[in-house]
Please model this.
Amino acid sequence: MVIDFSEKVVLVAGGTGGLGRAVSLAFLAHGARVAVTWRREDEFLALKNASAEGAHRLAGFQVNATDVREALNLADQILSRWNRLDVLVNAVGGYAGGIPLWELEPQVFERMLDLNLRATYALARAVAPSMMARKSGVIVNVASRAAWEHAAGASAYAASKAAAVALIDSLAADLAGTGVRVNSILPSIIDTEANRKAMPQADFSKWPKPEEIAEAVLLLASDAARVIHGAAIPVFGNR
Model:
């Protein structure tokens, strides 16, 4: 199977983080023009350095992806620059856990809703109209295994990820017949530097690698997955 994104424009929101970086580099390696959102400039510069010969096809935007106005402005900038937007991958997210609900502070709950749900809404709302106008496009939202398996101490995280899956599922129904495909992926704990620091005693060998998740994202975004729409796909294997 040949996956080629030459001439395609891809937005990877959260594209400089542990998973987002791997997704961004994968799309660049397959010929795409890639726009990423970033909150830390050093992470964007590191991504640009890692992209090597693909750096001229990479653009970064300092954006709060949870803000509706900023998301709309981002979509406008990408369309103005490249006159198209073919793929949105939303890798914006955050985790808070180990806290029983009665001890969960309201600001932590709101932060989980912001990162895991409101960003999904703001970004999808921003890009869907231009995709519908072209009758072509793909949205891949990074949810979590926790959307299905609701562990103790993870109420805010699980609720926000489950809500995001429901949002994308409903969006898929909204977009039926438009030529725009929408799906969620559900990773477990991903083998990133941040997760290793947070759980130093864990067995890292059982965690999926960011590059493995990125390959699944590429497949879903490609024409090879044109019959996949409205799915929530586990991407944690059987480790």
Q: What stands out?
A: The mean pLDDT is 94. The chain has one domain: 9-234.
